[in-house]
Amino acid sequence: MVYESVELHGIDAVKELEDGSGVALQRVPEDVRLALNDGAQIQMLRPGCAEIRFVSDDPVCELTMSCAPANEWSEVTVVPFFGAYQHSETYKVGCEKRTLTLTRPEILRQTDAECLDSSVFSPNVWRFMCWGGQVQLHGVKSSGIRPPKPEELPGVCLLTYGTSITHGHCASGPHLSYACHAARALGTDLINLGSGGSAQCEKTLSDYIGARDDWDIASLALSVNMDHFQLDEFYDRVSYMVNTVSGANTDRPVACITLWPYFNDMTFDGGKPRKSGGGTAEEFRQSLRDAVAACPNANVCLLEGPELLTATAGLGGDLIHPGDYGMMEMGINLAAKLKPLL
Q: Please, what sign has the CA dihedral across residues 28, 29, 35, 40?
């Protein structure tokens, strides 16, 4: 969405702050958010690789922002880019207003345009990728600020939905999530609707994703956050999401990803099997396979999570969230599976 003179990419609603100093950003409209489970209501206030974007005539800009003081997320990580070119610093923004003053590197300004990669993003686009708590935007100062034009941005957009793994938890930065790796490898833009700990495939969210017209291909990682459900409820939820999202526009490919490898795939204490409340990891994978097989829409395909993350060494120490190496492997492998669909 466009707010004043900037684009808020991956953001679909803003709320005016009580003191009038700016707006709080959220990834879905308020009526959609309030229809979700309690955890997802919180997570949809947090950015998932969402970006503040603009083009300016001035090589210097000032971005003033803060983090909404709520629950455990009291800090925002900000990774700036000049088009595809990453800035040398990453910033942390707390609950107090902070103004980030950045200067476009002189070497970028001096280099001939034809020598710079503009195949996906124009180098003239300021991009501030965010992760962490809810972003409060207080203002952007520079001369000649405007939103990017379509030709300055990728022409294709990937939408991702899933758990905290999709959201980017345990990656060293938002740009290192598997969703970002996949989008970069594909040369697409990214809308990340990962919902840490709370990806439960509600009908309202399924309807909302299907109704959006700003994405061209989607990946749905469905979903270890529902492994405490009984298998029949899990099937009903994923089946509704798969059918609804794919059926909204059958020209858009939709890839459904079974559970990534995690601790329930491993035994413990000399060979005892692990099982969540509703079933084994393989039973949940089979349930999604069945839902995809039953879907009447030809634009749906199934991807196996263990074929995207091929080694448990890609996981972090909690044996569920991938670390940076795992995220990279998942993103590159996902891109390779999605590329033929584009």
A: positive
Q: pLDDT of the chain along its 342 residues, tens only? A: 999 999 999 999 999 999 999 999 999 999 999 999 999 999 999 999 999 999 999 999 999 999 998 767 889 999 999 999 999 999 999 999 999 999 999 999 999 988 999 989 999 999 999 999 999 999 999 999 999 999 999 999 999 999 999 999 989 999 999 999 999 999 999 999 999 999 999 999 999 999 999 999 999 999 999 999 999 999 999 999 999 999 999 999 999 999 999 999 998 888 887 877 789 999 999 999 999 999 999 999 999 999 999 999 999 999 999 999 999 999 999 999 999 999
Provide the token pair at 126: 């300021």
Q: Where are the alpha helices (DSSP H) in the chain?
A: 30-33, 38-43, 106-110, 164-167, 178-186, 203-211, 231-247, 281-294, 305-308, 324-338
Q: Note whether 15 and 26 are within 8 A (CB).
A: yes
**Going by CATH, does the domain composed of 157-341 fall within 3.90.76.10?**
no
Q: Which fold has domain 2-152?
A: Jelly Rolls (2.60.120)
pTM: 0.96
Inter-helix orientation angle 231-247/203-211, to 10° = 20
The values of phi and psi at residue 6, to 5°, are -130, 160
Q: Which two tokens stand for residue 281?
A: 């990891």
Q: Where in the chain is the domain with CATH 2.60.120?
A: 2-152
| CATH 3.40.50.1110 boundaries in the chain | 157-341
